[in-house]
């Protein structure tokens, strides 16, 4: 696993995937998943609700040519999976310790 400073994008992370302005990054790294693909992860604490983040990222992905492959809109978490070219993206928002957390993942295939 290669941790990256908050001011840098992890290798393979889509440069235009938005991060909430002023958000506190809690994870920012690149690793290789068990299938041997590059996995880039950014996680942050959000000031928005889970529903606001779900709508924002769903709109962003669709507007930017991603194909939504899975959605989960549950009370305890919201998940979007999307595909564009050889990149799979996953957006997950959930609450922990009374905070809304957003996890963004990008998996680049071989």
Can you tell me about this structure?
By secondary structure, the chain is mostly beta strands. 13% of the residues lie in helices and 50% in strands. The chain has a seven-stranded antiparallel β-sheet with strand order 1-2-3-7-6-5-4, with helices on one face. The longest helix has 14 residues, at 50-63. The chain is globular.
Relevant terms:
110 residues; 7 strands; 13% helix
Question: Gist?
Answer:
The chain has 110 residues and is mainly β. It contains one helix and seven strands. Helix content is 13%, strand content 50%.
Cα shape = globular
**What is the share of helical residues?**
10-25%
* Number of DSSP helical runs: 1
What is the first-to-last residue Cα distance?
Answer: 18 Å
Task: Spell out the helices and strands N to C.
Answer: EEEHEEEE
Radius of gyration: 13 Å
Total beta strand runs: 7
Tell me what portion of residues adopts beta-strand conformation. over 45%
| Structure class | mainly beta
Mean pLDDT across all residues, rounded? Answer: 94
Given as residue ranges, the uncertain stretches (5+ residues, pLDDT < 50) are: none
Strand order of the largest sheet: 1-2-3-7-6-5-4
For the largest beta-sheet, the strand count, sense and barrel status come to: 7 strands, antiparallel
SSE topology sketch:
Blueprint: E1 2-3, E2 24-32, E3 38-46, H1 50-63, E4 67-73, E5 77-84, E6 87-96, E7 99-108
Antiparallel strand pairs: 1-2, 2-3, 3-7, 4-5, 5-6, 6-7
């Amino acid at each position: 696993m290669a941790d990256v400073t908050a001011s840098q994008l992890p290798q393979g992370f889509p440069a235009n995937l938005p991060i909430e302005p002023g958000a506190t990054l809690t994870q920012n790294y690149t690793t290789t998943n068990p299938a041997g693909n590059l996995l880039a992860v950014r996680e942050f604490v959000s000031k928005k609700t889970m529903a606001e983040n779900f709508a924002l990222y769903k709109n962003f992905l669709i507007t930017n040519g991603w194909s939504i492959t899975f959605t989960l809109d549950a009370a305890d978490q919201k998940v979007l999976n999307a595909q564009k070219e050889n990149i799979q993206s996953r957006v997950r928002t959930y609450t922990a310790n009374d905070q809304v957390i957003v996890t963004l993942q990008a998996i680049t295939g071989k």
